[in-house]
Amino acid sequence: MATFLTFDHVSKRFGQESVLQDVSFTLEQGQIYGIVGRNGSGKTVIFKLIAGLLRPDKGEIFCQGQPISRTNAFLPWAGILIESPCFLPHYSGLKNLQVLNSLSPHPVPKARLQEVMTQLGLDPKSRKAVRSYSLGMKQKLGIAQAIMHHPSLLILDEPMNGLDESSVAQVRTLLQGYKEKGTTIFLSSHNPEDIHALCDGLFTVKAGQVTVQKVVTPMADVVAP
Length: 225
What we know:
The chain starts with a strand and ends in a 12-residue tail after the last strand. The longest helix has 16 residues, at 165-180. α2 (93-102) crosses α3 (110-119) and α3 (110-119) packs across α4 (135-147). The chain is built from six helices and ten strands. It has a domain at 3-8 and 28-85 and 151-222: 3-Layer(aba) Sandwich (Rossmann fold). Helices cover 29% and strands 28% of the residues. The protein is an alpha/beta fold. The chain has a six-stranded mixed β-sheet with strand order 6-7-8-3-9-10, sandwiched between helices. Strands 2-1-4-5 form a four-stranded antiparallel β-sheet, with helices on one face.
């Protein structure tokens, strides 16, 4: 199996606080990885470093053998949902996706936007403004924008946040389908069931260090420290 992404001795500080210390790990192509840890442990920092929203103080990040951490550029082939999704509140869900799509260097047809909304149980024909969406609907729209450009890498920060049981099952099935197509998926979750149901490997973040667990086995082992 080919290596897709590598953290090579990466460190990150904010002022006097060391968030990540000499972190190294790899993601293999077409696998789903989970990352767990207490709030503030560095999970979101890792996601932002991959996305190009932050740069490491030391070390390097490689994607398919190419360094990506010094360009400070957003990865055009990555689908990203970090923290709470933000949308234009007065526009409908579809209109929001159309605006985001228009900003992409590789826009997709309107039919693709409608397709991903439907896959997530959202009505692309609805004119309902996003400001009137429930938390779960906003989260599903956030996932829709992450997948709409057929990403090679999906970075999902608490993707099940605000979803009811049926929607969680729907998203799990969707992510498994993307894995089968070769997409590499990196997600965080406070719910051990998500890790157990989806992930091929697990990373635990604690005190600035990342511990690698190659295979996810019993759910008791994946509870955040």
